Amino acid sequence: MTPESAGPPEVRVPRLVGLMAADARSRAAGYGVRLVAGDRPRFHELVVDYVVRQYPAPGTEVPRDAAVTVWFDAGPGDGGGGAGVREPRLPEPSDGGLRRELDEPGQTEAGVGG
User: Could you tell me what percentage of the chain is helix, strand and coil, using 3-state DSSP and rounding each to the nearest 5?
Assistant: First the structure.
């Protein structure tokens, strides 16, 4: 249920979390609120970034044309952050190729110094 543009002076904030930027803008406009995204200077050009947080919360009554702040998932090009499950990172192999294992720590290789 979306309010009409000439509707009541108070509107309810829609749920925007989980929507792509383009869909969030469209839904907000349909409910009579404006979106603000401080973490994205070119917010109106975004299409597929996903909303991960919003303020005020869905269902909150606000004046028509009030600002609703949204934050987006930081994808691979944004520093690798964002919401979601964090997986442990395993150590990466060294760049030197295969290493020779020694029998005991600190032991020198055969035929080298010793």
Answer: 15, 20, 65
Q: Token pair for residue 108?
A: 């020198």
Per-residue confidence of the chain (114 residues) as pLDDT tens digits? Answer: 454 556 678 999 999 999 999 999 999 999 999 999 987 888 888 888 899 999 999 999 999 999 999 998 866 555 444 445 555 556 665 555 555 555 556 556 555 555
Q: How many CA atoms lie within 13 A of 81 on its CB side?
A: 7
Structure tokens at 36: 């603000």
Q: What is the pTM of this model?
A: 0.59
H or E segment and range at residue 67? strand 67-72
